[in-house]
Design brief:
alpha+beta, 43% helix, 5 strands, 5-stranded antiparallel β-sheet
Length: 139
């Protein structure tokens, strides 16, 4: 399992933060995924592309990664109904089967992440990842 914290903010805001500061200052939600393929599958569901990447923020004080812009845009612009459907579809993939995951938990995660883009001030924000282990492949 790979534990990931997801932050929503601007790059200039996150580069100077420690993980603790980011948790206090920005929207944050977490998810444990079976492997990196889980995010690739989510990208395929929401964007139609299995190209999903997370690039390390080189100027950051911590090991923060920026999530692929295509997936971020899809999460931001999807309707609640589309995200509920995406969470249910995501949970049906075999990589989740061993975990006996509730599809509504994944849908709730997506809705929670989507809600962080709820006002005009957050439209230009991106999704950043902080990974608790060396679980992300180098791009």
């Amino acid at each position: 399992m790979i534990s990931i914290d997801f932050f929503v903010c601007k790059e200039e805001q996150i580069v100077t933060c420690s993980w603790e500061d980011a948790c206090e200052r920005f929207f944050c939600t977490g998810l444990s995924i079976p492997d990196w393929g889980a995010l690739t599958l989510l990208s395929e569901i929401l964007t139609g592309s299995n190209a999903c990447s997370a690039e390390r923020i080189l100027l950051s004080n911590e090991s923060f990664y920026i999530l692929d812009k295509r997936l971020t845009t899809a999460i931001r612009n999807s309707t609640e109904e589309e995200l509920l459907d995406a969470g249910a579809r995501w949970a049906q993939f075999p990589l989740w089967s061993e975990l006996n995951i509730n599809p509504m938990d994944l849908a709730g995660f997506l809705l929670n992440l989507h809600s962080s883009f709820g006002n005009p001030e957050t439209e230009e924000n991106s999704i950043y990842l902080w990974v608790e282990s060396d679980g992300l492949p180098e791009s």
